[in-house]
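Reminder to self: tokens first, then the designed residues, so the page reads top to bottom the way the pipeline ran.
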């Protein structure tokens, strides 16, 4: 098994209300940045995952998003492999 480092970005779907984004937008404008528009707030999740292959790691992370990390009704997600360490889990523990 190899250890994969993944980045998951979860963001509100286009067209849906984003109260956090609206609050940040208002605050930025009141602090002197009136040129800012279209603020949307999402989340980034970074995780290490042990898997047999890159495709297995990506699919397992997507399954995590569908079941827990993203709300399928209001959010979209994107999973990116950032790096991986070759070798077995036992080698990584030494």
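Designed residues (94 positions):
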């Amino acid at each position: 098994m190899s250890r994969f480092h993944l980045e998951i970005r979860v963001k509100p779907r286009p067209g849906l209300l984003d109260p956090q984004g609206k609050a940040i937008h208002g605050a930025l404008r009141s602090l002197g940045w009136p040129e800012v528009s279209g603020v949307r707030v999402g989340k980034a999740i970074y995780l290490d995952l042990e898997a047999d292959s890159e495709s297995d790691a990506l699919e397992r992370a997507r399954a995590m998003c569908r079941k827990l990390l993203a709300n399928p009704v209001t959010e979209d997600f994107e999973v990116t492999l950032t790096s991986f360490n070759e070798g077995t889990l036992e080698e990584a523990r030494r």
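The longest helix spans residues 54-69.
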